[in-house]
Amino acid sequence: MADQVVRRLLNGAEIPVLGLGVWQVRDGRECERAVAAALENGYRLIDTAQAYRNEASVGRAIRSSGVPREEIFLTTKFYPGSRDPLAEAERSVERLGTEYVDLYLIHWPQGGPTWAWSGMEKASEAGLAKGIGISNFSAAELQELLKVSQIPPAVNQIQFSPFEYRRALVDACEDAGVIAQAYSPLGTGRHLDNPVVGRIASAVGRTPAQVLIRWAVQKGLSVIPKSTHPERIQENFAVTDFQLDADAISALDALDTTNQTPDALSRSDMWWS
Ligand code: A2P
Question: Measuring from atom 19 of ligand 1, which residue has the nearest CA?
Answer without folding.
Answer: 227
